[in-house]
Design a protein that fits this description.
Layout (H helix, E strand, L loop, with lengths): L1 H17 L3 E3 L11 E3 L1 H20 L4 E4 L7 H7 L1 H4 L1 E6 L6 E3 H9 L7 H8 L16 E4 L3 E2 L8 E2 L5 H6 L1 H8 L5 E10 L14 E11 L6 H17 L7 E5 L11 E9 L2 E12 L1 H10 L5 E2 L6 E2 L2 E8 H12 E6 L2 E6 L10 E5 L5 H14 L5 E3 L5 H11 L3 E5 L1 H6 L1 E6 L5 E5 L3 H9 L1
Helix pairs in contact: 2-11, 3-10
Length: 455
């Protein structure tokens, strides 16, 4: 089973490069440390996921507002949150091959023991164990490594960091939101943005990279209410979104963190895990953060980050639930779920069966033959009539069969072919991606046809 899953991952990675979804960054220079660029179709797919999320969790709710905070924040933000001192992973180097490993993961793979946080114990456990890279046993001592990227800023004497999560920008603007937006508890602040973590080992394609994107919410509520129903509601909201982007129940499961593994501020944390080709791993997370963040930022900033009850009877620091969604992991899960190999009459075909609302291209328009000016002109008329309402692509390269196969691999739901009959009868052939069925539709009725099919 493991070999099959690895083979599937290789096929997805290959398709992503071949069809313009995701490229290795700086490939002309030999690549750059697990870094990737989103190509034309990948960028559009990513945008579609983010737009759907924003629509669902911000625009469609009266208890949510959105912000777009900066990547560079005051150094005290990370001191208050504990990242400056405590955002560490354990790493270990092989002295022979110079390969670096995440120590707790390596120890668990070799010994089966979970020794996270026990640096001395991990060093002891690795003695005499062979390096999986070179087969020798010559380990450095296990040590901590802070995962924040450090930089400098003119006029600031202390180090400045690229944000390791988007939540910091939300908490430091809590007071501004309360003062300017007339929000009432319970309410949430949402944000989509880049975060940066200097991972010891980045791996599994775009699953674990050092520059990634988050869709994150901080949902503030009265500490005196029973928070458990609210927690369950947000967990269901996350699962609903996963289904909306095409993920199936059978490929998802909940993983609740044990009390011993919880962050010191958390009352409860649940991960929604997805069955990627390399196994079940975290897709989304939901944590009860209590009042830790607002209390810490109040302490470090000397500002009162309180909420005043509209009746004027109480002032209090709200508690927080944090639903967080990985953009890149969502996209990878979509690719894994959509990837399909089928046997058809003229051979095998690969098709990405995205939900129609996520597909990077909604409609592809073909002239039957590229060397017939009258067909090309008519096809461009059809393209122009659709392009303002749908992301469309005009394709006249190669025979129609090859164009169908290319659009299948892109995940395009519908292909429209203009042929010689179109010039006489003013209709076209519309081909469905999933069923491969073809129907004739009047050109003047294409708008209504696709409105029904695509929305």
């Amino acid at each position: 089973m493991a070999e099959e899953k690895n083979e599937l991952m290789e096929k997805i990675v290959s398709l992503c490069k071949r069809r313009g979804f995701i490229f290795p960054t700086c490939e002309i220079y030999g690549g750059f440390a697990n870094s990737y660029s989103y190509g034309p179709y990948g960028a559009q797919l990513k945008k579609n996921i983010k737009d759907l999320w924003w629509k669902k969790f911000v625009e469609s709710r009266i208890d949510m507002v959105g912000i777009d905070g900066p990547i560079l924040l005051h150094p005290k933000v990370w001191q208050a949150s504990g990242h400056t001192e405590g955002f560490n992973d354990a790493m270990v180097d092989c002295k022979e091959c110079k390969k670096r490993f995440r120590a707790d993961h390596l120890v668990k793979e070799i010994t089966g023991k979970d020794m996270e946080g026990d640096l001395k114990g991990m060093s002891k456990a690795l003695k005499g164990k062979k390096c999986p890279e070179c087969g020798k046993s010559n380990w450095a001592e296990v040590r901590k490594m802070n995962m924040m990227f450090k930089t400098e800023m003119n006029g600031i004497d202390e180090p400045v960091y690229l944000r390791p999560e988007t939540a910091g920008a939300i908490f430091v603007d809590f007071k501004n939101i309360v003062d300017s937006m007339r929000v009432k508890i319970p309410f949430g602040i949402a944000q989509i943005g880049k975060a940066f973590r200097n991972e010891i080992v980045a791996r599994n394609f775009i699953f674990r990279v050092r520059e990634f994107e988050q869709m994150e919410i901080e949902y503030f509520f009265d500490p005196e209410i029973d928070w458990k129903p609210l927690f369950s509601e947000w967990l269901e909201n996350q699962k609903e979104f996963a289904k909306e982007i095409g993920l199936s129940d059978k490929n998802m499961r909940d993983f609740e963190h044990s009390k011993e593994k919880l962050s010191h501020y958390s009352r409860k944390t649940v991960d929604i895990e997805y069955n990627f080709p390399f196994g079940f791993s975290e897709l989304y997370g939901l944590a009860h953060r209590g009042d830790f963040d607002l209390l810490q930022h109040s302490k470090y900033s000397n500002e009162k980050l309180e909420y005043s009850d509209p009746a004027g009877s109480r002032k209090y620091i709200p508690h927080v639930l944090e639903p967080t969604f990985g953009v890149d992991r969502s996209l990878l899960a979509c690719l894994c779920e959509a990837y399909t190999e089928e046997k058809v009459n003229d051979g095998d075909r690969i098709v990405l069966k995205f939900p129609r609302k996520l597909a990077p291209v909604k409609v592809a328009v073909f002239p039957l033959m590229r060397n017939k000016p009258e067909l090309v002109a008519k096809a461009k008329e059809v393209f122009d009539s659709l392009k303002n309402n749908y992301v469309c692509e005009f394709d006249d390269n190669g025979n129609v069969g090859k164009r169908y196969r290319r659009q299948d691999e892109i995940g395009t739901p519908y292909c429209v072919t203009v042929d010689f009959d179109s010039l006489e009868t003013d209709d076209v052939t519309v081909r469905d991606r999933d069923t491969m069925e073809q129907v004739r539709v009047k050109i003047g009725e294409l708008g209504e046809y696709f409105k029904e099919k695509l929305g």
